[in-house]
Write a structure and sequence with these properties.
Elements: E1 7-13, E2 26-32, E3 38-42, E4 45-46, E5 51-57, E6 65-75, E7 78-88
Antiparallel strand pairs: 1-5, 2-3, 2-6, 4-5, 6-7
Amino acid sequence: MPYRGTTICIENTLTDFDGSPLVPDGQDIHIYDPDNADKGAQSPVQKDTNVFGIYYTIPEDGKEGTWKCIWKATKGTYSKVGIFTFDVSAP
């Protein structure tokens, strides 16, 4: 479980409908705290052909509880949304 003030990495492996690697045209990634407050857009780093990651530092005064990352990837006219959750606690 990550603590307030630490940096986490969230990775996403993108594939198309038949499981082949997918490099999207665009990605829209946002982190939300337990009160559903948007902590801003995140920029992904490409780690492999179709593997992307974001690094996010949880604020020192961040709320304890379940946070979420909503990750939308778009290729042409198609899009896919992934939701990742993580629990934050005080150190």
